[in-house]
Amino acid sequence: MQVAPAQLKSHLSQSVRSLYTVWGDEALLVQEAADAIRAAAREAGCTERVVHTVQGARFDWSSALASSASMGLFADRQLVEIRIPTGKPGKEGSTALQTLAENAAQDESTVTLVILPRLDATSTKAAWFNALSQFGVTIKIDNVERQALPQWIAQRMAVQGQHVVEGVEGQQTLQFFADRVEGNLLAAHQEIQKLALLYPAGELSLAQIESAVLNVARYDPFSFAQTVLAGRLDRVPRMLDGLKAEGTAAVLVHYALAEDIRALVRVKQALYEGMPLPVALRSHRVWGPREKLMERALPQLPLRTLQLWLRHAHTVDGIVKGLKPEGWPHDPWQALLRLAVMVARGCSPAAASRAAPARHA
Q: Distance (Å, rounded) from C-alpha 294 to C-alpha 283?
């Protein structure tokens, strides 16, 4: 049984099941979901809590199984928490989790909470995860994407009785806030809480938020590459500056960007061979946000343009590794900026409006 994070509070108010699995990479939201389950378990009589953290292949799964099967020493019910930071329980762990899930369906004296990171498609199809889903409740925590971040901030502010002004200024305020905290949801939560300490409930202006919210944004090379694919020319320089300031290796940024360019070329070539776009994307292992972005961008991009980008990516690869070709900036970050802006401009919605429909040449 799967429960959406937004419905978890309502679900727990009705009944507390004996097995919960929370999985995702957004640490703040995973923590909040787990806290809600812990609180509901305490109200249901689980005053004793046992925590197991799976670290390495030598973890003693028998101890976790014993905890789940035993009664609490000082309480009628107990909460057993199993954390698997890698998301890979191993062969012994797979068997143990299946046993644990089956036992949980028959024993209500223990509430078991399994916490996992974001899982790949292979893991979600594994027998151990299917057992957790079949016999218990799973809560999938999705990342808050950049486009959804302003609304997420507005909702969190509303909980503490605050809101931005209406209209264009309010949207600008939320966008400014999102730019300051992007990629760092825990810090975003803390900045929102800080607003409650600084200002009373009610309407907040752009000036108030500008003076209060720190720049705590954190970027990673792959979210940067997705921003380039989205054609967000306004955000590319800022994200690249952020990556540089955080000490990210230029070679990692180039790798993420070049991988997307290579994928664009491969998929475009597959389209020439008569393969439908959705099939071509999946056959070249393009899915998730990248799939949607490439699906939008590919029809407007001629193959010759993509091949030119790929040649430029090879040039920038050399610059990142110390070469100094003519006609390009010798500074790796300036070269990356030039390549990224080139690709973003070609993938932008403005370019799509100028492109002929379904152009493949």
A: 14
Q: Burial, 261: exposed, middle or buried (Cβ in 10 Å; 0-12, 13-18, 19+)? A: buried
Strand (E) or helix (H) holding 171 = helix 168-181
Q: How far apart are CA 258 and CA 37, in angstroms?
A: 42
Of the candidates 134, 142, 113, 105, which has an alpha carbon nearest to the alpha carbon of residue 51?
A: 113
Amino acid at 208: Q
Tokens 């378990």 belong to 41
Task: Copy the structure tokens of residue 321.
Answer: 């590794």
Amino acid at 186: L
Distinct helix (H) and strand (E) counts, the chain = 18, 7
Contact indicator for 73, 104 with CB cutoff of 8 Å: no
Confidence (pTM): 0.73
Residue 342 predicted with pLDDT over 70: yes
- Read off φ and ψ for residue 80, nearest 5 degrees: -110, 120
**Which domains does the chain carry?**
5-141 (3.40.50.300), 146-212 (1.10.8.60), 221-354 (1.20.272.10)
DSSP state letters, 223-271: HHHHHHHTT-TTTHHHHHHHHHHTT--HHHHHHHHHHHHHHHHHHHHHH
- What DSSP assignment string belongs to 269-333? HHHHTT--HHHHHHHTT--THHHHHHHHHGGG--HHHHHHHHHHHHHHHHHHTT---TTS-SSHH
Residue 208 clears pLDDT 70, i.e. is over it? yes
DSSP bridge partners of 354: none
In this prediction, residue 67 has a pLDDT band, given cuts at 50, 70 and 90, of confident
